[in-house]
Design a protein that fits this description.
200 residues; alpha/beta; Rossmann fold; 24% strand; globular
Length: 200
Amino acid sequence: MNAKRFKELHMKFLGNVDDPSRSWFQKIITERHRDRWFLRVLPPLKGLDVLDLCGGYGMFGAYLKSVRELSFNYTCLDKDKLRIDLGPEYFKTFNLKPQRFILHNISNPLPTPPNRFDMVWLFGWCSSFFNCIKLFREVSRVLKPKGRFIFNMARAGGYKTKYSRKGLLELLKKTNFNVLKLDKIPNGVDFGVVAIKSNN
């Protein structure tokens, strides 16, 4: 399936879903600076266990499994029951085997055992929405040794974030991460971060 066909099916699916968040999803994955950055920094996924925080319908997972034809185990968390309920149906739209969808608010401890995942994603969020130290410690807990945490965070001055570049580096160090990459995404809003769980 190519990207054009993916978009056509995606829009058709959204047309049948009564979801007020639909307008946000109209910006398909390949059309946004943040998501192009994500695709550039994404390491090989074959055989990995991936956790997508605030994953909605599992859009990133569906894209990578259908268009990119990548093989990995995917778990999606979201606090919106409608999205979680429709996530498996969304995967079926692309003839994909349904993955794990879990109803969960990530302000609470993550519902998985320690050292469970090879990679955690978190996209489309602002640092003012969460207790970042608490959340990042939870991400570190559920990642395997040397596991990767890939996420975006609004830069200082955008969306009332409380972290500058220096502050973000200090936060990651406090929560047991070493930073591999910290970029200014050219959308004027976000930092893009690739961090690896340290051995400490």
